[in-house]
Task: structure prediction
Amino acid sequence: MAVRHPEEFIIRLATPDDVPRLLQMYVDFEPKVEFQGLPPPTKEKIEQWLTSLTGGGNVNFVIEAADGRIIGHAVLCREASDRAEVAIFLHQEFRGKGLGRKLMEAVIHFGCHCLHLRKIWLSVQTLNLPAVELYRKLGFVTLHDIGDLSSELLMERSVGCPVCRQEECPVFDKRLPLRITLPPAEEPSQSDPPSEDGRPR
Result:
């Protein structure tokens, strides 16, 4: 039996050098155009989309695996000095491991302590129950339904406290770069059914 080793990841701010690996992540990403047409379906459109995301006043974050692959991406799109939208994407091979939560915690920490935001908001598919539950656990509340037949939820979280709660805050110690070690995956037995991973977007 092969020896399984812990998986190592680092969450950090993105750099221009990450763009080719981000592009490869999205070329391999499935399913495409699932929510709000994202990620785009073709390499050319992905390149255009990444150009728009990595420009302006947006702040990009990545999860880098030990082998150098980019397997997760989040972006804070500032709308005002104290408010921003967040979007998060995780490669399908790495869902269901808690990495989406770790990435979101790091983004919230950065928004609070580095950008001094007061509000972060996002939209999520109403039927994406794992993602909705994750966001609620992280302090997001539902503002209202949007989209045709209420297919999307608009959720918001306050990120700036009048007095920092320090250790009482779930994102207090999530300063970048954030290193994550996951235990070795267990060998599935012959009788185990295949797992189903939720998409944390």
Remarks:
- The chain has four helices and eight strands.
- The radius of gyration is 17 Å.
